[in-house]
Amino acid sequence: MTDRLSSSRWWGALKREWLLYHLGDPAFRFMFDPPPANEWVSLDCETTGLNVRTDEIISIGAVRIVGNRIMTSERLELLVRPERGVTAGSVPIHRLRERDVAQGLPILEAVKRLMHFIGSRPLVGYYLEFDVAMLNRAIWPVLGQGLPQRKIEVSTLYYDYKFKQLPAYQQQANANIDLRFATLMNDLGLPLRDAHDALNDAVMAALAFIKLRHLRAA
Fold it and tell me: What is the pLDDT along the chain (218 residues), one digit of tens a residue?
């Protein structure tokens, strides 16, 4: 076990040096520092659609988690001005109109603010892979790579928690587990805020993360 841990740390250090060597802007070297103990950042993005190649970010919400506390006083809430405007089909979902985002930040400035807010903290989110993919499109020209932090997917934590509660025959049958956000929050006894608001979704993901950590430790 000791040899395995030593090998893992060695590979981790090697990967960090490789990423730093290829870092585009050295001003963001702090993102590769050791993260503060028991701190995370929960984040969410609202977008003009679900195509990670062509759609755009129109809002970003992020909140810091310290231990079992959500630091709502240390939050980030940004509107982003899309280059191609807001699609009519997406307005009923996120309720952001063209005029709402017209004075938003350019995406490059928005992601730079986000990176300073995150620092080296691990990221938490619900279906975080999509948000990170959208952010990485804008971040790549700055860093020469995507966000380097560890990513923690809330729906995966919830799936693991529910799977362990199933009897053996259902585990072997790969029983379906409902991973919808509303189902997850209701099952965990957590309050639902208005969905498809970046900051609200980030706060709800943070609540679920804290609750699932507590349940896993119990």
Answer: 555 556 666 555 666 665 665 677 888 898 889 999 999 999 999 999 889 999 999 999 999 999 999 999 989 999 999 888 777 667 656 667 777 777 889 999 999 999 999 999 999 999 999 999 999 999 998 888 899 999 999 999 999 999 988 887 777 666 789 999 999 999 999 998 887 799 999 999 999 999 999 998 87
Distance between CA 104 and CA 81 in Å, rounded?
A: 5
CA 206 – CA 71 distance, rounded (Å): 10
In a domain, 1, yes or no: no
* Alpha-carbon gap, residue 38 to 36, rounded angstroms: 6
CB 192 within 8 A of CB 142: no
Looking up residue 167, the CATH number of its domain turns out to be 3.30.420.10
- Global pTM? 0.86
Those residues whose C-beta lies under 8 Å from the C-beta of residue 63, and which sit 6 or more positions away, are 41, 42, 43, 70, 71, 72, 74, 75, 76, 199, 202, 203, 206
Q: Which residues does residue 151 pair with via DSSP β-bridges, in sequence order? A: 123
At residue 45, φ and ψ (nearest 5 deg) are: -130, 145
Burial of 164 (0-12, 13-18, 19+ CB in 10 A): exposed
Residue 7 domain flag: no
Residue labelled with tokens 């490789």: 18
Number of domains in the chain: 1
d(CA 9, CA 5): 6
